[in-house]
Design brief:
extended
Amino acid sequence: MRVALVDLASSAMRIPVTSVRTTSGPRWLLLCAVVLSAWIAVLCSTLGSTATVRHWDVSWIGLDALEVLGLVATAALLRRRHPAVGQVATATATLLATDAWFDVTLSQPGWAYAGAVTTACLVELPLAFLCLWTSWRAARMPLAPRGWPPDRPWTGGQGCRPCQDQRGMRNPSGTSSPDRW
């Protein structure tokens, strides 16, 4: 039974990429972009320039809390060289850029606007670019091997022999596989 599952899995892994139907995905995305463009035109002609909103403070606190969570998650995943670091860093960059956009566009004229532009230029956008750079670099970094302890960062084998762990101690089995440590 187990052999049959392995054979089934290995045969499923050999499916050529060309056999997967990918032609309809881009068409749907372009159609959605056209529909969204038409919706933007409707909004431009119908929306007013002011609005009264409830829970204004909760919205901004929630956005800033998500940014903090994204930065902490990106740092933790980067330290562990987790494969999801690129996606989390990109999502965090998106949140930071969105925060900068809304800070600048929704601020009142005068000192509030100057403060929003300053914060966007000196804090939020540089952090967003740092997150995008981290995502770009994460796509090129060696990933931690399967079974690597999550409390120890993976160096990709740089600076240490494969048969040693991060503290310079030889592993008990004498092998280079962290699965057996």
